[in-house]
Structure formats: C-alpha cells, structure tokens
Specification:
The complex is a heterodimer. Chain A is α/β, with parallel strands linked by helices. Chain A has four domains: 122 residues, Rossmann fold; 90 residues, no CATH class; 136 residues, Rossmann fold; 127 residues, 3-Layer(aba) Sandwich (Rossmann fold), CATH 3.40.50. Helix content of chain A is 45%, strand content 12%. Chain A contains 24 helices and 14 strands. In chain A, β1, α1 and β2 form a beta-alpha-beta unit. Chain B has a six-stranded mixed sheet with strand order 2-3-1-4-5-6, with helices on both faces. Chain B has one domain: 3-Layer(aba) Sandwich (Pyruvate-ferredoxin Oxidoreductase, domain 3), CATH 3.40.920.10. Chain B is built from six helices and six strands; from the N terminus they run βαβββαββαααα. Chain B starts with 6 loop residues before the first strand and ends in a 7-residue tail after the last helix. The chains are: A alpha/beta, B alpha/beta. At the A-B interface, α15, α24 and β14 of A face α6 of B.
Chain lengths: 528, 196
C-alpha cells in the first residue's frame, strides 16, 4: 500500500482538546496523518503551509478554533486568507486545491473532528499521491563549489579597493552600512564574521550598477550569486530568512518535479487566439502566482501583462502556442543560490520546449528573457531555440508601419528593469517604444538607463528597511519628473514599488499609477 | 485564341527631383523585364525638371501597346499637392489613389492609400530614396508588378553601390503596404485595436 503523508496543523487551543478527546476514547488516528501542534492557525503562513507540499506532503489540513473563538482574536481570519491563497496556488500548480483544507472545531466537537479526518484522508487517497517528489541530491547534481573557486572564477582578487562600488551601490546610498568591496575583501581574507558575510551576501540586489562602475571588471552580482550557491550547499539555506518566508523559493523548487502538470493558463481570457501547432511559443512566467500571493496586499495584476502580450501577438497575426505545463524559468532559484534546483528546472524547460519542436520563444518578462536566452547557455545547456523579447517583436512590427497609437492624456516616465537594462543592455529598445506612444510628455528620471535605480529587491532575497528606503527614493524620483504614470517592464518592479506605496507613514505622497509597457501598448495601438 | 486585354495605366507624379521619372521607369522595367509584359513610359520634359510638377506615364499591358499616353489612369501615385490637383480628375473611379501622407492632402471624396514615404526615407538617412519606398508601397498595394520583378528592376536601375540601401527602402515601403492592407482588412471586421 502506498504510504500517504498528510500533515495536520493542529491549534493548541480548541481543536487540540477535541483531538485529545478522540485519543482518550481509544480512537486510532489514521497512520498517514502526521500531527504538528501549533499555537494558533494564524501563525502558519503561506510559506509554512506550502513548505509541507514542497517536502512531498499529499495533503495539508489546518485545524483551528471557530472564528470568534480564537484565543488571539484574528488568528482564524488570517488562516482563512492564507488557505484561500495556498489553495489557489495549488490549483495553478495543477495539484488540485482539494489537497488543502481549513477546518474549525470547538473543544467538544470530537466526533466532528473524527469525521473530518476520515473524510480528508479519503479525499486525499482519491486524489492520489502528490506529483511532487521532495528534492533529493543526486549524483548527477553538480558538486558544490568552494569559496576559492568562486573567487578565482570572478577574479575577485583584482579588486583595487577603490570603493567605486560602494559609492554607487543603491543600498549603501540609501543608508545601509553595506559595502561590496569590504564584502569581497573579507571573503578573500577568510577571517570575516561569517554571520555578517552571510547577511551581506543576502542583502545584495544584484542590480549590477557596481559591476558597471568597477575598473577591474569584477562581476559582483555573479560573484554574489555564486557565493550564495556555496553557502547554500554548505550551510543549507535557512528559508525563514528569505522574504515572504521563502515561499517563492519553495514554490519554484516544487516545480522541479517532472511529474507535476501545472495548469497556469486556465484563467486566460477567451478572446486570445492560440495555435498549438505554432512554431512560436510564448513563455508567460510566474505572474499568475504573484497575483495570488499578493492578492490582498497591493492589488497586483501582473498576469494582465501575459494576456496583453498574447493579444498583441494576435494583433500582428501571430497565434503562438503555450507550454501546457509551463514552469518557472529558474531565475529566482539561480540568483538566490540554489543552482542545483535551477539546473533541474532549466533542463526540464529546455526538454519540454524542444519536444514541441518550437523554434522561437517569445517572452515579455525581463527575467525569463535573460534566463532563457543567456543564463541557460552560460550554465552549460544548449537550447535549440531562439529567445526573443516581446519588445523586439513589437518594434519590428510597429516599424513596418500602418499602425498608430491613440492619444493618451498622461505624462509618463520609465522604470528600467535591471535584467533588461544592465544584463542584456536593452535600454534603448523600450524607450524607442515609449517614444512611439502618443502621450503628453515623456521624461526620464534623474537616474535612468545605465545609472537607473533598482526597484529594491531581486530573486526574493534580502529585503529590509533599506530596500524600502531605496524604493521610496525611486518613487520620489519618478514624481519629480512631473509624470503621473510610471511605465515599467518587469512584473517585479510593479510588485516592489507598489509595496513601498503602501507605506502608512508616507501615505499619499508616494501614490503613483503604474502600468506595464506591454499593457500600455496593447491599450492604445490600432491599425491606422 | 484572343487573350483578354489587361491594360493598366499609371500616372506617377510629384515635384521634379523626387525621382518620379525613375520610379516610373523602374515600374515599366519590372513589368517588361521581370513579368514579361509590354510597357511604355512617357516622361514629361521641360521646366518640371527644375522643380515644377513632374509626371511619368506608364502603361503596362499583356498586349502590344498602340498609344503610349494615359487617357484615364488605373493608378495615380502622387508625391506633391500640386501634382495631385492637376491629375486627380484623370483617375478612374475605381482606380488606386496612392499618396505621400505628409505631402498630399486628398480632398476626401474617395478612398486612398497613403504612406509617409519622404519621412521614412529621411529616417533611413536619404531623402532621395522616397521614390523607392513609394515603389515598394505601390507594389504591395496594387498588383501592377510582382515583388520579385520590382526588386530586380530597382537593383538594376539605381546607382552602383546603393543597391542594398535601395532594396532596404523598397522592403520598407512594401512591408508598410502589406501592413496597410492588413489594417484595412481589420477595419472591415470592425476591430482595429487590440481588443476593440
């Protein structure tokens, strides 16, 4: 018989009494149920709930007190929201939202609890084993690198200690006592405070402005990425330290399971025309997950970018196909130091895309673009397809002419995405498109193009008060241009800058409308 | 067996110096050399070549052409307002009116196809290539000559060393034309934007 694993998060208060009542009466708790006693359901974040699935749980039940009977007031309400979100994520992953349930019991409801447990076990068995197999290191995985190897590969020894990196680092400029060159030197000397080194490596935004300025050409972002990899394999990453409790890393690791059949396209509007024989594939990216996760925080609607990209392709008579069980491109795993799982994702993606016989992959996400087109090759894969950014496609088509843009009565400014701007040197292309729009005015922020400021976070790693300060600075720069609409090109810029706009102390001062360039083009373009 | 006569009369017109006559010549050459039809060209001489209204009359036919002057035109290609005013009445009601968007404002009583050829040529770096861009556009919009024949004729008519650049200009105009036709099609379906 297959060995099912069902995790039961059981609140210490009401339902625990009911649970004990069952045990007192000699009821055998089904053997597949592993009970974890918790202080309150409200303390079990989406990250913890999801972690269970990442580790191979077939089902997760969270059992707390009835709303209103919560010892801490709002615990059950929080749990309800977390459950809705986690279930939506499970649905997008194609695992089925039924694998997760929330239930509430009063201390004397032993029988109801018994029935619930029996019913849940039954349901999980009907759904079958989880398609997620917990990640185990295998012999095929790359052997961990040493600190020495990373130092040598990036020639970090050539650091001249000039300090240009610190002087340009947006984190240092927003007041954090953080210095790339100090970090490099303490790693070289090998006698630094390990804890501090760890924190500093986590803090780097990998935005690349230091690399741009470095006279010795030390690629600090990649150095940080690979050092994170060393630490990841040596110490194991403490996921609790990562923003959002490591939820996103967990999510992306889950997607390395080959048996997982994601269903991230069910929400696509009906007006989009697809052709599953097309030689052109559109790679959407993880935006649908982000929207679910940040549903109640910032009204993030980044998946609209995917819909609008597809509509624009249709507009120019391209009917692309989609990867039926598309996964994350692996960007965040790579940059948060989990190279082993990045490689698993990358291999899966390349295999799936090539199996379809696709020749061209178009994507609108800067991270997917950079990862698919450049990193896959750098990391030793040889994909047999070309990767095009949607902007490239649009510029070529619009340049052919006969299209025009509706007048938009807005003043706009443009936020650079680091993956396009610095890593791929794509900074003129989006501006060319922006200038084609018929808007009242387009003005650049004080720091734009090569010296553009980061949105404050990358790869869901290292977010703190200084990241926030940096975001506030960026939004103020945008406001100073006199613009009333900020045009972005990366879903994450939207998420992070919106987060800063929620600041309760600065309030209205930071509010500014944001729109993705793709969406803006889709909204205004027409055949002349 | 007598073949049905398929004769098309074209007037290319604009300012002297815009390459109007060359455009007419290329059109005729493409028809004769590339598409193996008959063609004639009558070009206007005189003060036009110093900046007035200039005109090239091209006739393309699958039979021998007896009379080389255009009586009523099947296509009127205008690259200046004064030329438009002068020749607009010679165009057949169902004929193609093709204009340079920035130089000609048609009086609006008929459908027309426009392209900012001169502006596009400026963007390409040479204003004098506007005629070639126009030619590409005409090739896409009308079925006067085939694309391959037109490209061949462009290549053999322009000065040595500028072939590649002129072909680029031709392609630019051609693609604009294809896109224009597509836009027209979309307009017919009622959806010109992405969603509406």
């Amino acid at each position: 018989m297959e060995n099912y694993k069902i995790i039961l998060f059981l609140c210490n208060w009401g339902p625990h009494a009911a649970y004990q009542g069952l045990q007192d009466n000699g009821y055998q708790i089904p053997s597949e149920i592993k009970m974890v006693s918790i202080p309150c359901t409200g303390r079990i974040s989406k990250a913890i709930l999801f972690k269970a699935f990442e580790m191979g749980a077939d089902g997760v039940a969270i059992v707390g007190c009835c709303s209103g009977a919560c010892r801490y007031g709002s615990g059950t309400d929080t749990a309800e929201n977390n459950t809705i979100d986690t279930r939506s994520i499970l649905e997008l992953l194609g695992m089925g939202q039924e694998r997760m349930r929330l239930a509430t019991f009063l201390p004397d409801e032993s029988t109801a609890l018994k029935d619930f447990l029996a019913d849940f076990c039954q349901q999980i068995k009907m759904l079958g084993k989880s398609p997620v197999s917990p990640v185990q290191p295998t012999s095929q995985d790359m052997p961990p690198e040493t600190v020495q190897q990373v130092l040598t590969r990036h020639d970090a020894y050539s650091c001249q200690d000039c300090g240009k990196c610190t002087a340009s680092c947006p984190l240092a400029l927003s007041g954090k006592s953080y210095s790339p060159r100090t970090l490099v030197n303490s790693i070289i000397q090998g006698n630094g405070n390990r804890e501090q080194i760890y924190k500093d490596l986590q803090a780097c935004l990998t935005c690349g402005i230091c690399f741009e300025r470095c006279p010795s050409d030390v690629n600090f972002p990649e150095f940080v990425r690979d050092m994170r990899g060393v630490l990841f394999q040596a110490d194991g990453m403490e996921s609790g330290r990562q923003p959002h409790g490591g939820f996103f890393q967990s999510l992306m690791r889950t997607m390395t399971s080959p048996a997982l059949k994601t269903s991230r396209w069910d929400w696509l509007p009906d007006d989009i025309r697809l052709d599953d024989q097309s030689p052109i594939l559109f790679f959407g990216g993880c935006a649908p997950y982000f929207d679910v996760f940040f549903r109640r925080h910032q009204k993030v609607q980044t998946r609209d970018i995917i819909a609008d990209s597809l509509r624009l392709l249709n507009f120019f008579d391209v009917q692309p196909r989609l990867l039926p069980s598309e996964r994350c491109c692996g960007h965040d795993l790579l940059w948060s130091g989990d190279r082993v799982n990045f490689m698993r994702l990358a291999k899966l993606n390349v295999e799936m895309i090539q199996d379809l016989g696709v020749k061209t992959v178009i994507t609108a996400c800067p991270e997917c673009y950079q990862t698919l087109s450049t990193q896959y090759v750098l990391q030793g894969l040889s994909p047999a397809f070309t990767v095009t950014h949607l902007y490239d496609f649009l510029e070529k088509e619009i340049d052919k002419g006969a299209v025009n843009f509706k007048q938009l009565d807005r003043k706009i400014t443009y936020q650079d995405a680091c993956r396009l701007n610095r890593m791929e040197n794509v900074r003129e292309l989006p501006r060319k498109l922006v200038r084609r729009l018929s808007v009242k005015n387009f003005s650049e922020m004080k720091d734009a193009g090569q010296s553009a400021l980061c949105c404050g976070n990358c790869a869901w790693t290292g977010c703190d008060a200084h990241s926030k300060a940096l975001q506030v600075k960026r939004i103020r720069q945008a406001k100073e241009t006199g613009s009333d609409l900020m045009v972005t090109s990366c879903p994450k810029c939207q998420i992070h800058l919106r987060c800063a706009m929620e600041d309760p102390f600065l309030g209205e001062e930071l509010k500014m409308e944001m729109v993705d360039l793709t969406t803006l083009i889709a909204k205004t373009i027409y055949y002349d | 067996m007598t073949k049905e006569i398929q004769k098309q009369e074209v007037i290319v017109t604009g300012f002297g110096g815009q390459g109007i006559v060359l455009a007419g010549k290329i059109l005729g050459m493409a028809a004769a050399l590339g598409d193996h039809k008959e063609s004639t060209l009558v070009q206007s001489y005189g003060p036009e070549s110093r900046g007035g209204a200039c005109c090239a009359q091209v006739i393309i036919s699958n039979r021998i052409i007896q009379y080389p002057y255009v009586k009523t035109a099947d296509a009127l290609i205008c690259m200046s307002q004064s030329a438009y005013e002068k020749y607009k009445d010679q165009l057949k009601p169902e004929g193609y009116l093709i204009t340079d968007r920035d130089l000609v404002t048609p009086d609006g009583c008929r459908e027309f196809f426009d392209i900012p050829a001169t502006r596009m040529a400026e963007e390409l770096g040479r204003k004098m290539m506007a005629n070639i861009i126009m030619l590409g556009f005409v090739t896409a919009i009308t079925a006067l000559v085939s694309k391959a024949a037109a490209q061949e004729a462009v290549q053999s008519s322009v000065p040595k060393g500028t072939e590649e650049m002129n072909l680029k200009a031709f392609t630019k105009g051609f693609e604009y034309g294809v896109s224009k036709l597509k836009g027209k099609e979309k307009k017919a379906t009622g959806q010109i934007g992405v969603t509406s």
